[in-house]
Write a structure and sequence with these properties.
This protein has about 220 residues and is mostly helical. The chain has one domain. It is built from seven helices and no strands. Helix 3 (about 40-85) crosses helix 7 (about 185-215), helix 4 (about 105-125) packs parallel to helix 7 (about 185-215) and helix 6 runs antiparallel to helix 7. The longest helix has about 45 residues, at about 40-85. The chain is globular, with a radius of gyration of 20 Å. The model is unreliable at about 1-10 (pLDDT under 50).
């Protein structure tokens, strides 16, 4: 039993990779914001453009008020996921280190956090009783289906992100072996767009589900 818990709690390459990624994100964030200027430097300018773009994107889903409320969470998810995704483009990915979003346990953990945020947001907005009543609309017999849907959503989010990133890595590796000249450049360009889209889709779905859980009753 002791050996089981020792192996269970033993850090894996995925955990080490996540620690490094989080440290890099933290370092860049500190460097970009430690000495804010009226006329921004390159790093501050990139950070401000990123924040502004994400605010506008999520604002179209949640509205200005709720965007400001949930922006720290949504932006953190987006940045973490996109950095994890782009790690797969670094030479040696999969051998020297693990691409976190290509591991199901990582995407599942992100989805569990999303589930907790969505449900707690709905309860905070409406109260537990009124929030549960929303699952009886538009008709009572849909209650089991609507409850089940709340658990299927995070599962689908986890599987979608994992499957797409893992599949993209596998396909790219196979194609590189078949066509080592020329194709890798094209694949890397396409992967830049693909990894961005996957991060955006995950956070957009989270924003949509938060909007549904916290929308005002008619």
């Amino acid at each position: 039993m002791a050996e089981f818990f020792e192996n269970f709690l033993k850090p894996t390459s995925t955990i080490y990779s996540m620690w490094v990624i989080m440290a890099v994100i933290l370092l860049v964030s500190i460097l970009a914001t430690r000495n804010m200027k009226t006329v921004p430097g390159p790093l501050q300018n990139i950070a401000e453009m990123a924040v502004s773009s994400l605010m506008n994107f999520f604002g179209g889903v949640l509205g200005e008020k709720r965007t400001r409320q949930y922006f720290p969470l949504l932006a953190t998810f987006f940045i973490l996921i996109i950095v994890c995704n782009y790690c797969g483009l670094i030479p040696g990915a999969g051998e020297l280190f693990t691409v976190p979003t290509s591991v199901l346990t990582v995407t599942a953990a992100l989805s569990v956090i999303s589930f907790v945020v969505i449900q707690s947001s709905g309860i905070k907005k409406h109260g537990l009783g009124k929030y549960l009543l929303t699952f009886f609309k538009p008709v009572v017999f849909l209650f089991p289906i609507l409850i089940l849907e709340q658990f299927i959503r995070p599962l689908s989010m986890a599987l979608r992100l994992y499957g797409n990133i893992y599949g993209e890595e596998l396909a790219a590796e196979t194609l590189f072996e078949l066509f080592p000249v020329g194709l890798p450049i094209v694949m890397h360009i396409l992967s830049l767009l693909f990894c961005f889209i996957q991060a955006m889709v995950f956070t957009m779905l989270l924003a949509v589900f938060i909007h549904e859980a916290t929308e005002d009753e008619e």
